[in-house]
Design goal:
35% helix, alpha/beta, six-stranded mixed beta sheet, Rossmann fold, 298 residues, four-stranded antiparallel beta sheet, binds adenosine-5'-triphosphate, 10 helices, P-loop_NTPase
């Protein structure tokens, strides 16, 4: 084992289903102590990648590494995994179910019961421990699923859509719990369709499309490398910007245009031309994660 907490590395990971290459040479790192958001449209390959990381689906190419070496079954047994197909028993009582799972993960009955009770209380489910899972709302069932993945103090967390169907308060309490784990150096990989949520929660993100990584890094890295857009206003109208060299017109409405500009030279030329036409505003626009995402998967 190395001194620093371990990272999870995915290198050139590949999986085919017949002729369809669902995951195509995907590489990224989930750093210790970081929440890494895994985003992509339906069918992008997120679940398939997570299944290969967890060893529940055979790998056709590339590898998964943990702590600087090829991952083993023993490593994976120390991970917390929330699969897309939620694996709990609807007819079993919530607490019994968590205790059973904790014991499967090598905990004593007593430790599993104590930790399960603590987690359920954290999720506001302290009064529901004796209820059958199926009697809980879907959002609360989801919380129990996440509790199941956290129970044994996992070394890493792989969570497939952990926030889907949760209300904002439930999201916040789950994020608090996950942050507690990252503070102890645990790497967390979670998939999501909700870009605004990912932008708020994650330290790093990986954007997947058509089985390939289209962009990866921190939100700030991706914003800095994102499209250079500006808002420009001139009187009486801004239509003249069409056809300016090095300038891609995203939108023009009346006196205001949103522009994507190739480089500094094109920007300086444009500003000079605008000054001759009554420039009233020229502001850089910070791209949102949605802009970056759209650009990355285009
Ligand atoms: N067991 C399977 N058999 C055949 N094709 C599969 C199988 N599992 C996944 N695929 C295909 O692999 C591709 C990636 O699917 P995957 O479920 O990994 O995407 P995803 O990004 O998780 O999507 P979603 O957000 O909808 O869950 C899709 O084209 C899907 O149809």
């Amino acid at each position: 084992m190395s001194q620093s907490p371990p990272a999870l590395e995915v290198i050139d990971l590949t999986r085919r289903f017949g002729d369809n290459t669902a995951v195509d040479a995907v590489s990224f790192v989930v750093e210790p102590g970081r929440m890494t958001g895994f985003v992509g449209a339906n069918g992008a390959g997120k679940t398939t990648t997570m299944r290969m990381i967890m060893g529940v689906l055979a790998i056709h190419g590339g590898e998964v590494r943990w702590d600087g070496r090829p991952i083993t079954a023993a490593d994976r047994s120390r991970f917390g995994y929330m699969p897309e197909e939620r694996g709990l028993y609807p007819k079993q009582q919530v607490l019994d179910q968590l205790v059973y799972l904790g014991q499967l993960r090598g905990m004593t009955r007593r430790d599993a019961a104590a930790e399960a009770t603590r987690l359920l209380e954290r999720f506001g489910l302290g009064g529901r421990t004796r209820d059958k899972l199926e009697s809980l709302s879907l959002g609360n069932q989801q919380r129990v699923q996440v509790a199941a993945s956290l129970l044994h103090g996992p070394a890493a967390l792989i969570l497939d859509e952990p926030f889907s169907g949760l209300d904002p308060v439930a999201v916040d309490s789950m994020v608090d719990l996950l942050r507690e784990r990252t503070r102890h150096g645990v790497p967390v990989l979670f998939s999501s369709h909700q870009l605004d949520l990912v932008d708020r929660l994650c330290d790093s993100l990986v954007i997947l499309s058509g089985g390939r990584v289209r962009a990866a890094g921190t939100g700030d890295d991706l914003r800095a490398a994102g499209p250079r857009r500006f808002r420009l206003s001139t009187e009486p109208d801004a239509g003249w910007v069409r056809g300016e060299p090095g300038v891609d017109v995203v939108d023009v409405e009346g006196t205001t245009a949103v522009l994507q500009i190739e480089d500094d030279a094109a920007r300086d030329r444009l500003v000079r031309r605008a000054a001759e036409r009554g420039l009233t505003e020229f502001t850089p626009l910070v791209p949102t994660l949605s802009d970056i995402y759209r650009e990355a998967v285009r």
